[in-house]
């Protein structure tokens, strides 16, 4: 069993998770009829591969595979996700909407490589759920073959270890753009207050980003022009600069139910809430409480970003799995919750 801790931006709460790590090599779908290696060729990415079309590795931009190539359609490397061999900029531009199909049929696959090949992180829907939250900066996974591993979501790298991490994609991810407003991340296109809404849609920003990740996106609001600079990941106005971030819209894995039983290897996850003195208490079934830890876990297994309502002594409460907080719906007082 592996557990994980998530680190959050601004005033958001942290939370604990349980993840398991597979010691089997990933079963990635083959992107070539010749059954090639599914890793990008490092020599091709450096500028020249002596094996040319005979190379068993993918001649594709390694940053495009990760989803963060800063050059976009102007990149001189292949962005088509097609087989090996020499592909140049002109050939990649013939397939502007073609994306690499590197997963085994799932929406996404999170993997680690400590030098012996890429291995799946099982139950990675939990990791993906945290990655999709704009305020989550990182996640720490325990009990992997490499010890505790901290993943930086901004750079998709591992802190302080010779271990690589990657997120494979089926090419159908919807990417969402957020801006920090009043210490909270607000999606472009949604209302930041009951009376204020963004004049620009997240999808418009993503379209511009896909065409050229080195450029910027400008729009007008309240008589001033704002510019989103993709390289700096910030929104710049006349008076101030704000952070922006790009995260995937969370999708449930179609095959998620197959791997869920593997989540509980050796122990059963417990749900706890933080008391007034900072001590953590398990959700237990007792008089006046309508739920317990096991019921919360069942709900969480169905959707790690869902919410759950319950009662304590007649008062209504809500658990938010995405933010990992408990809210008293009458007083609006919140407490941290965690899964250990």
Automatic annotation (TrEMBL):
Which residue ranges does the record assign to the C3H1-type domain? 35-62, 63-82
Residues of the region (Disordered) are 1-37, 189-215
Taxonomy, superkingdom:
Eukaryota
Query: Chief localization class?
Result: nucleus
- Outline the extent of the WWE domain: 160-251, 257-339
User: What is a single molecular function from GO for this protein?
Assistant: NAD+ poly-ADP-ribosyltransferase activity
Q: Which UniProt keywords are given for this protein, alphabetically ordered?
A: Metal-binding, Nucleus, Zinc, Zinc-finger
Low complexity compositional bias: what residue ranges?
A: 20-34, 191-203
Localization annotation: Nucleus
Kindly list the ranges of residues that form C3H1-type zinc fingers according to the record: 35-62, 63-82
Q: GO CC annotations?
A: nucleus
> Would you identify the family this protein belongs to, as annotated?
Belongs to the ARTD/PARP family.
What's this protein's name?
A: Si:ch211-244b2.4
